[in-house]
Amino acid sequence: MHFKIFTLLALLATTPAFGISLESTIQTALANNRELQAARFAVSKAKGRLAQAGKWPNPELELSGMSEVVFRNEGAGAFTVGLAQTFPLTARLSLARESARVDVLRALREIRNRERLLIAEVRATSIEILESQARAKALEDLLAASQKTSSLAEERLAAGQGSLAEKSLSLVDQRRIANELDSARLTQNLALMKLKTLLGLGANDSLELSGTLESAIQNLGSPSSPKSIHRPDVDLLTLEEEKAGLEIALARAEAWEGIRLGIQYTYDQNTDEPEGLGTDQFLGLAVSIPLPVWDQKKGTIEERTASRNETSARLRAAKLVIENSLASALRRVALLRSRLAAFDTQTLAPVSQSVEEMTAAFETGRVDMRDLFIVREKLGQLRLERIALQSQLALALADLESTTGNHPAIRREYLAATQEKNQ
């Protein structure tokens, strides 16, 4: 996988114009998008917190000594060595480890959701480029037809059969089409620059998107009723709800800080009348039990309970939004497919045939040029409208893919993450 991506990026950097498919843009963006690469470090940070979570506090070594030498007395004194360890009274450490484990899962879901949004943005930008390419191709065909008509008009004028009005009208028509063509090419270049940024390429790197709107629609497909939804953002809210429950339990457990056990050894040198200085040795045990009298973490528990309730409400809202968005996306795809099919058969086909007939009639002098240009302009507008319909359908399919999270890269990672969580 990494070798294929490296080869693709090498070709992008070395070839003057490399045609990249719609699906290849997705794989390149997932591997090379700079913001996504930076975001992936969140997983490493969460894993670092997991490695640190739930550790026992370090033992404490205590040393103390006292003597009366400085007061020029007989030299009595004492020296004490102690070793203490705090032991948890509750499941605080295990709860902290579980909370950190959930943080790792949350970081992974956050990356998956960023990838889902990145795929949707790459899809939309690529479709914008394909639409601009289709518009430019249609306008180039119209410009060629207009130039052919202009040449015929000049021939008729030279033969004394035409008029200056026809020549001027032809020039105006050519300039109108040429201006629209320049606009379509500008849109294409700007969208291509945006796509380069999404793919992690520089402004001077060569990139050319291959394919057409028809191929994009075919590749995206149109599931009538998706069997499953793979939404990392919903998983993220579910994990946040789980973490909030753990944080509540952790706050209750933290009210008891832990029992402190220590062993102490004391060497004591003191004056014992009438014998004088003598020595004693002591070995003792110290126990410290915290009492949650003043700080019972009630405020923290209340705050975290409210946070869990908030997350639960956001989760319910997200599920409703996804459900409605899915219904809307399916209906939008169905309506656009139906409209595009009707547009081809009921509008574009008869008008195209009419223009062909009028063009043939113009060449024999039976149709006025003004009438031909009017009908041809309408046909050009209809072709551009069809391209816009295709673009809307492709965007609707891309939106449906993003709504369901059914892109193979997201679906595969979703299933793997689900198995990991169940384990």
Quick summary:
It contains 11 helices and 6 strands. It has helices spanning 2-14, 22-32, 34-39, 41-52, 92-158, 164-198, 213-220, 232-254, 298-363, 369-404, 408-422, and strands spanning 19-20, 60-67, 77-87, 208-209, 259-272, 276-288.
Task: Assign an overall shape.
Answer: rod-shaped
Show unreliable segments. 1-17
Distance between the termini: 26 Å
Helix content: 55-70%
Mean pLDDT: 83
Q: Helical stretch count?
A: 11
Strand order of the largest sheet: 2-3-5-6
Would you kindly provide a written description of the structure presented here, covering whatever features stand out?
- This protein is an alpha+beta fold.
- 69% of the residues lie in helices and 12% in strands.
- It has 11 helices and 6 strands.
- The chain has helices at 2-14, 22-32, 34-39, 41-52, 92-158, 164-198, 213-220, 232-254, 298-363, 369-404, 408-422, and strands at 19-20, 60-67, 77-87, 208-209, 259-272, 276-288.
- A 4-stranded antiparallel sheet has the order 2-3-5-6, with no helix packed on it.
- Helix 2 (22-32) packs across helix 5 (92-158) and helix 6 runs parallel beside helix 10.
- The longest helix has 67 residues, at 92-158.
- It is rod-shaped and about 150 Å long.
- The two termini are 26 Å apart.
